[in-house]
Write a structure and sequence with these properties.
Elements (H helix, E strand, L loop, with lengths): L1 H33 L6 H5 L7 E10 L4 E8 L9 E6 L2 E2 L2 H11 L9 E9 L3 E8 L15 E7 L4 E9 L3 E3 L2 E15 L4 E15 L2 E16 L2
Antiparallel strand pairs: 1-2, 1-12, 2-3, 3-4, 5-6, 6-7, 7-8, 8-10, 9-10, 10-11, 11-12
Length: 232
């Protein structure tokens, strides 16, 4: 009986935890709907590479080892395997092989559901509501591939009913190329285009404390998005 009682207790406890998790998700969904905000707004924020807008992007990566500046464009009218294209690296045009390798690495998971979970209302006042969340690993776009490690916060503007910014933080150690990452933070900034009723991603700012050749250092990557044009 003791064994049965213990099993029953553990099963009941597991059910309670599961119910609690669903209750949290449901409360977030209900609150967002009550405010007239899309309950999938965080998921949609990862789908800036949509089928409606052309845009350009610059990527500036800085570490003690090197500095790189890339220019890239995204065109939804191209084939899905070619929508993101690398144009220049440090002011020079890139070889066909380099451009091909970039496209192969980046043009995947377009349109796939990322999967947002563990949502909770972190804070709310008269102008905004802040939702904490986590991301599944498998379908994150290439430039966000490490965000599944992070705790995320989405700051939603009640007036525009759009996300103003997202913050991601992680303090677990992992490897990126030649760097051992100690802390990892990304900030995503949006601006609402009222004319087109479109929430434009303006920048992604990534900051890391890292070890490079056993020396502690800092590294950063800044993505700037511009020249949005609606595809006719």
């Amino acid at each position: 009986m003791k064994g049965f009682g213990r099993i029953f207790f553990l099963a009941a406890f597991a059910m309670l935890l599961t119910y609690g998790a669903f209750a949290q998700v449901d409360s977030v969904t209900q609150r967002l709907k009550a405010l007239g905000i899309d309950s999938n707004i965080i998921e949609h924020s990862f789908h800036t590479d949509d089928t409606a807008h052309y845009f350009k992007m610059t990527m500036h990566a800085v570490s003690t080892e090197r500095k790189d500046l890339e220019t890239i464009d995204y065109d939804p009218q191209r084939d899905e395997k070619e929508r993101w294209q690398l144009l220049t690296l440090n002011g020079d045009s890139v070889s066909d092989k380099w451009a091909h390798d970039y496209s192969k690495a980046v043009n995947k998971n377009i349109g796939k559901t990322v999967g947002i979970y563990a949502t909770r209302i972190k804070f709310e006042d008269s102008s905004s509501i802040v939702i904490s969340f986590k991301c599944n690993k498998d379908n994150l776009p290439d430039r966000y591939s490490n965000l599944y490690r992070c705790n995320g916060l989405a700051y939603i503007n009640k007036a525009t009913k759009q996300i103003d910014k997202e913050e991601f933080t992680d303090s677990s150690s992992f490897q990126i190329e030649f760097m051992s990452v100690v802390t990892y933070s990304m900030y995503r900034n949006f601006s609402y285009n009222a004319d087109e009723q479109f929430n434009q991603l303006i920048s992604d700012d990534l900051y890391m404390d890292v070890f490079i050749k056993d020396k502690k250092s800092k590294a950063s990557v800044t993505y700037i998005y511009s020249d949005y044009k609606k595809v006719k």
